[in-house]
Amino acid sequence: xxxxxxxxxxxxxxxxxxxxxxxxxxxxxxxxxxxxxxxxxxxxxxxxxxxxxxxxxxxxxxxxxxxxxxxxxxxxxxxxxxxxxxxxxxxxxxxxxxxxxxxxxxxxxxxxxxxxxxxxxxxxxxxxxxxxxxxxxxxxxxxxxxxxxxxxxxxxxxxxxxxxxxxxxxxxxxxxxxxxxxxxxxxxxxxxxxxxxxxxxxxxxxxxxxxxxxxxxxxxxxxxxxxxxxxxxxxxxxxxxxxxxxxxxxxxxxxxxxxxxxxxxxxxxxxxxxxxxxxxxxxxxxxxxxxxxxxxxxxxxxxxxxxxxxxxxxxxxxxxxxxxxxxxxxxxxxxxxxxxxxxxxxxxx
Length: 349
Known about the structure:
single chain; alpha/beta; nine-stranded mixed β-sheet; five-stranded parallel β-sheet; 30% helix
């Protein structure tokens, strides 16, 4: 079955979708609309059809799927408009600005019978999938702590991402990715507690970073952190288990697993620290550990659209469900509440 998709908004992510879609079988980009003349001219130069208006795009009866890749505040009205025009809808992340807005979009999907989802593309990040495999392998023993960090040193991009009314800030920009990943490690566990702080180092209007401690009812704690004013590299992932530790340094998947092995480690040799001796903080002897390579996983982000098409054809269950999307949205709201009140938020009990 062939599908025709139209794109509303041809900025950075819209163009990313355009290029990916042009490599996927059974789906054709019918055309685009963008309010900026320069982006319409760019699309035309690439041989892509440019609609006369958003209304013209939605009136195209050959289009069964619409991608919305506009600034965040426009996701909700454009998605509702598209579903009411009889189109299935994919929205760029974050799906919208609040859980109340998201509920309106879900209600519209139910009322119109049209498919609606969000493009959580970082479910296909190979570093994330590798962490899932590390946990599954059991090499580290029972996991008790996970750390997920993304840091940059350039502040927030100088566009609408700096404006609160358009859904700017790092919680909505990067948090939506990392929190979606966090909730997928233990999907059956309840997230009991949320404690967060946010930063405004480079921007006073919206958050330019945050740190949150997520406490799950299975005993696992996860630190999720985003920063935009850090001038050194920090590990993308740290995974701590009762039998070992794993580190993934970067998106290139440099890293390793170090696990307990062989001889007992009872005879600890003290080490000299700044002003004294310590056994507690001494490293393990080499004969009591083994170093393993990361179980690197491969993926193809185009599988997102392949799943969308298969779901529309009744062949597969959707990979990104609306309850999952709502859970992430409510978690972002809990982070904002925790930071504002400086208190732990009881999330799911």
